[in-house]
Every structure is written in structure tokens, then in C-alpha cells.
């Protein structure tokens, strides 16, 4: 107990403004006014979640407890936790910031993020729960040779998680920097340290309850924000949009535009083209967001935390409802920020950009409608959002290394539960360090866009392997492992060569790959590679793989032989 109190005290101290430390690290960086409400809410949330982690640690004794909370989470709880896991910094901070900048075009995130959930519900939820135990690789490799497919799944998971982590770390760093005047680097280190505490000691049980609490707080806070924005517009969306158009027109006039140019700039926020410039990028972007949802390892892992397939379907239904409602709110919040934040000089720096970074539109809006008290609440909720998602990401990556690589590939299924847990916790430490490093490198990126890159990887590698292994009897080990790898590498290489990374992040000049998303090329590459390699595979293993499909289908459809929940 003393150790946990010490951890809480340490975390509380870390969250307080440290002007001397900040000045030493950032030189001339200016401190923000101290918001004691925000500080107290931050500390209260950290204290609550550390207490949850302590309670969960006492019940985390086996690998099943650590990875899936023993499979004992109800469908409603898991749906809320799924929503909490999915409504990340990209959803709350990134989408509202994108709408603040580009208007209507930001809707591509809300739409794309949401429409992948019916795929999960109708094609995958029941099959995943019946076939898997800890990770999506259990499903993808069910009737195949284990080492090749699990190796692919582990590498894919680590790549997807790495890009997804970037968005969370950048959002958290900018948030704490804005509120507390701490250097960005220190803020990122704080988040990394807290993330490791949750996962190391509490596992999936602690992560689930942190995600549930975060989802309730975020839905409540976002509902209040949207309601207050609409109240100031007479509860008229038409009035909100008209006012936003006028604000953008006036801003363009102030920037030296002619009357005609300013009028066009104002109207442009109600039409596509500000963010996604060409049809190829628009289709590619939407494809990545839609199919990537069904390939995210930390979301797929949640299907194994429920007792049976019925609860898995219920989870997706609940999650889809909460997430759809939330994305409606982000649209109102984004346009509300244009009207209430874009016209207030105190929220802007000398160059007219958002103070604290481009992802802070929702945070400033909270202050505009509710003062310091609501700013403190929303800031704590945003911080909770980031910590919950980061914990889920880290857990999925740790399970990929310990369960898929160490226990299955290296130890050939003979590793003990204690050994798996030890490897998971060592992996968590390594991932914490990696997350901090990535957060520092990608500091200036829009967090929603960085998540879209992770979605492109998931859509190109994980999704084709899962769908074809579940639904096509002709899929083979070689097809799944090599075809999935081709799709994943195509997405990864084209992402590195895209303007977002090649030009915006590493400043290497014009990008060799001109489009913002690789999915329109990499997703077909994944599917076609799996199909062609499987079709040409005449090995003895291929015959075994194809012969195993009927048994897989029986279990996938009926649940006979599926793993049951642990009895605690």
C-alpha cells in the first residue's frame, strides 16, 4: 500500500507546474496562468485510476487475467470500454481541430471512423470471440502453421500501435504544455510513465475500467459542450454554420484577401476540398479509416474479454451507438470552435494560430463556454482519454510480443503463464520509451492525421488476412503470411514517402508519393497478394490449411470448443 501511495504522490508532484524546471529546459518559454481547478482534477483522476490499478493488480494472477480480464466483462461494459478505447485523442482533439481549420472536410474522419463498425458487427464479432483467446493472431492463425502467421501479426501489431501511439503522445504533450506551462518533452515523459504504471500492474482489468470511466466522462463533457454551443446559436445548426462562414470570411479579409476571395474562403468550409485536395486521396483516406477499424489490434483484442459470442455482438452494438453519437458532437464542437475560439484573440498567438498547438481547439472552446472550471474538467477528460487509449495500445503490443512471438513462435507453446507475464511487462517498459521518443519526433503533426496512417497499415495488413482466413477456404499459410506482409510493407513504405512524413515531419523536400493516404494502393495489394500466393501454393501445408477450413467454420459459427471466461 505504501508503494502505491508513493506512486500517487509522485504522479501528483509530476503534474504540478515546475517553473524552474520548465525554464531550464525551454529557456524563454512562457508559463501559462496556473489553473488550480485543472490541476486538482488531473491529480484526482490520476489518483482514482491508480487506485483502480491497485485493485486490479490484486486480481491479475494469470496470462488470461492480464490480457483479457479473464473474459468476464459484460457486453455493455465492454461496449463502453470499446468506445472509450476508440474515442481517442484523434477523435476528440484531432477531429475538432481539423473541422476548426477546414470545416466540412473534417467530417471524413467522423464518417470513416464510424462506418468500419458494421463490418466488425456483421462479419467478425462472433467469429473472433469463438476462435480467439488473447490476440487477433489466435484467429488469423487458427488453421495455419503458427510461426509465420503469428510473426506477421506481431510485426503488424507493433507497427500499427507505434503510429497510433504518436497521436496520443502528441495530444497529451500539447495539452499538459498548454495548461501547466511545462515543456513539451516533460509532458510526454509524464504520460509515458503513467501509461506504464497502468499496464504493468493492472493489465486488461485496470485498462477496461479506466476506459469505461473515461468514456462516461468524455460523452458527458462533449454533450455539454455541444449543448452550450447550440444554446448560443438559438439551437439552430443553420445559424451556427452561417456564423462560422462569416468568421472565416472576416479572417480572410483581415489577412489581405479581396472581397471575392474572402467570400469564397468563407463558403469553402461548407464544401469538400480544403483538407483532401483530390479524389484519389479522398477515396484512399476513407478506405483506410473504414477498413482499418476492423484491423486495429487493440480493438480486436477487446472481443476476447467477454464470456461468449452473444456478448461480443452486444459489445459492438453498444460501442457503435456511443461512437456514432460522439462523432455527431465533434462536428458541432468543431464549428463551435470556429465561432467562439477563432474570434477571441486570447486563444490565438501572434501569428493567428491556436495557442498551445493546432490540436487545442476543443480545449479552448471549453474555456470559452465554461471558464476555468469547465476547462479543468475537459482537460482532465482529454488526459483520461489519452491515458486510456495509450494503455490499451500498449497492452495489445505487449501481448503480441509475449503471446504471439515469445510463447508461440520462440517457445512453441511451452512457455508458462508467469514467463509470458514477465515478457509482457518488459515489453511494456520498452514501448513506454518508444512512445516518448515518437511523441517528441512528431510533435507538430495533427493527431487525427497520424492515427489515419495507423489505420492505413491495419487496413492493408491485418484486415485482408483476417477476412480471407475467416471467409475463404482457399487461403493458406503462405498466402496469409506473405500476402499480409506485402500489404503491410506497401502501406508502410508509401506512408514514409508521403507528404505527411517525408515533407512535413522529416523535411526532405517534395514527397516521392504524392497522396496523403496509401490505402487505395496497399489494401488491394494485400488482398491480391494473399489470393494469388494461396492460389499458387501447392505445398503439403497448403492442403492441410484448406482441409482445416470446415472445422474452423463450425467453431466460428457455433462456438463449440471456444474458450470460456475465467471463474474468479
Automatic annotation (TrEMBL):
The record's CDD domains line, in alphabetical order, gives:
SLC5sbd_u4
Pfam families recorded: SSF (PF00474)
The membrane topology noted for this protein in its Swiss-Prot or TrEMBL record is: Multi-pass membrane protein
Q: Which UniProt keywords apply?
A: Cell membrane, Ion transport, Membrane, Signal, Sodium, Sodium transport, Symport, Transmembrane, Transmembrane helix, Transport
The positions making up the signal sequence are 1-22
Question: Which sequence ranges are marked TM in the entry?
Answer: 34-52, 106-125, 152-176, 182-203, 215-235, 282-304, 316-341, 374-402, 423-442, 448-472, 479-502, 514-536
Query: Quick one: where is this thing mainly located?
Result: membrane
Record-stated family: Belongs to the sodium:solute symporter (SSF) (TC 2.A.21) family.
The record, for NCBIfam families, names: PRK09395.1, sss
Q: What is this protein called?
A: Cation acetate symporter
In its UniProt entry, the species of origin is given as: Sphingobium fuliginis (strain ATCC 27551)
Its organism's taxonomic lineage begins at: Bacteria, Pseudomonadati, Pseudomonadota, Alphaproteobacteria, Sphingomonadales
Which gene is transcribed and translated to give this protein? Answer: actP
Amino acid at each position: 500500500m505504501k508503494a502505491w501511495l508513493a506512486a500517487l504522490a509522485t504522479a501528483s508532484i509530476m503534474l504540478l507546474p515546475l517553473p524552474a524546471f520548465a525554464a531550464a529546459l525551454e529557456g524563454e518559454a512562457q508559463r501559462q496562468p496556473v489553473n488550480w481547478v485543472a490541476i486538482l482534477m488531473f491529480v484526482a483522476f490520476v489518483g482514482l485510476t491508480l487506485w483502480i490499478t491497485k485493485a486490479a493488480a490484486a486480481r491479475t494472477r494469470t496470462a488470461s487475467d492480464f490480457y483479457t480480464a479473464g473474459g468476464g466483462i459484460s457486453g455493455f461494459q465492454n461496449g463502453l470500454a470499446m468506445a472509450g478505447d476508440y474515442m481517442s485523442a484523434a477523435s476528440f482533439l484531432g477531429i475538432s481541430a481539423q473541422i476548426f481549420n477546414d470545416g466540412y472536410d473534417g467530417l471524413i474522419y467522423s464518417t470513416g471512423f464510424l462506418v468500419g463498425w458494421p463490418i466488425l458487427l456483421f462479419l467478425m464479432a462472433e467469429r473472433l470471440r469463438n476462435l480467439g483467446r488473447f490476440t487477433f493472431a489466435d484467429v488469423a492463425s487458427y488453421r495455419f502453421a503458427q510461426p509465420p502467421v503469428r510473426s506477421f501479426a506481431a510485426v503488424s501489431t507493433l507497427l500499427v500501435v507505434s503510429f497510433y501511439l504518436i497521436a496520443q503522445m502528441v495530444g497529451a504533450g500539447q495539452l499538459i504544455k498548454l495548461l501547466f506551462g511545462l515543456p513539451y518533452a516533460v509532458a510526454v515523459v509524464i504520460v509515458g510513465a503513467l501509461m506504464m504504471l497502468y499496464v504493468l500492474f493492472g493489465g486488461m482489468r485496470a485498462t477496461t475500467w479506466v476506459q469505461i470511466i473515461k468514456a462516461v466522462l468524455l460523452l458527458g463533457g462533449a454533450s455539454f459542450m455541444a449543448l452550450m454551443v447550440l444554446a448560443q446559436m438559438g439551437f439552430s445548426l443553420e445559424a451556427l454554420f452561417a456564423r462560422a462562414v462569416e468568421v472565416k470570411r472576416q479572417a480572410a479579409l483581415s489577412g489581405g484577401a479581396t472581397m471575392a476571395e474572402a467570400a469564397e474562403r468563407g463558403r469553402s468550409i461548407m464544401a469538400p476540398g480544403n483538407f483532401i485536395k483530390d479524389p484519389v486521396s479522398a477515396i484512399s483516406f476513407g478506405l483506410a479509416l473504414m477498413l482499418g477499424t476492423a484491423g486495429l489490434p487493440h480493438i480486436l483484442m477487446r472481443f476476447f474479454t467477454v464470456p461468449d459470442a452473444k456478448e461480443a455482438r452486444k459489445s459492438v452494438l453498444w460501442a457503435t451507438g456511443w461512437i456514432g453519437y460522439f462523432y455527431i458532437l465533434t462536428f458541432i464542437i468543431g464549428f463551435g470552435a470556429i465561432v467562439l475560439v477563432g474570434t477571441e484573440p486570447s486563444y490565438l498567438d501572434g501569428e493567428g494560430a491556436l495557442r498551445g498547438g493546432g490540436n487545442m481547439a476543443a480545449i479552448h472552446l471549453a474555456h470559452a463556454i465554461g471558464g476555468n472550471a469547465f476547462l479543468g474538467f475537459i482537460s482532465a477528460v482529454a488526459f483520461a482519454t489519452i491515458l486510456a487509449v495509450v494503455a490499451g495500445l500498449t497492452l495489445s503490443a505487449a501481448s503480441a510480443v509475449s503471446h504471439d512471438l515469445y510463447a508461440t513462435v520462440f517457445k512453441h507453446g511451452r512457455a508458462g503463464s508467469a514467463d509470458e507475464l514477465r515478457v509482457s511487462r518488459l515489453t511494456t517498459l520498452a514501448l513506454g520509451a518508444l512512445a516518448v521518443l515518437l511523441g517528441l519526433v512528431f510533435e507538430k503533426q495533427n493527431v487525427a492525421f497520424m492515427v489515419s496512417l495507423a489505420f492505413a497499415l491495419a487496413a492493408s495488413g491485418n484486415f485482408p488476412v483476417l477476412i480471407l482466413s475467416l471467409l475463404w477456404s482457399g487461403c493458406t499459410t503462405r498466402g496469409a503470411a506473405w500476402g499480409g506482409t506485402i500489404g503491410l510493407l506497401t502501406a508502410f513504405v508509401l506512408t514514409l514517402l508521403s507528404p505527411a512524413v517525408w515533407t512535413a515531419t522529416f523535411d526532405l523536400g517534395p514527397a516521392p508519393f504524392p497522396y496523403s493516404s496509401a490505402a487505395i494502393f496497399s489494401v488491394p495489394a494485400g488482398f491480391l497478394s494473399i489470393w494469388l500466393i494461396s492460389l499458387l501454393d501447392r505445398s503439403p501445408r497448403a492442403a492441410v490449411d484448406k482441409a482445416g477450413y470446415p472445422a474452423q467454420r463450425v467453431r466460428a459459427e457455433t462456438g463449440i470448443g471456444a474458450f470460456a471466461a475465467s471463474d474468479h
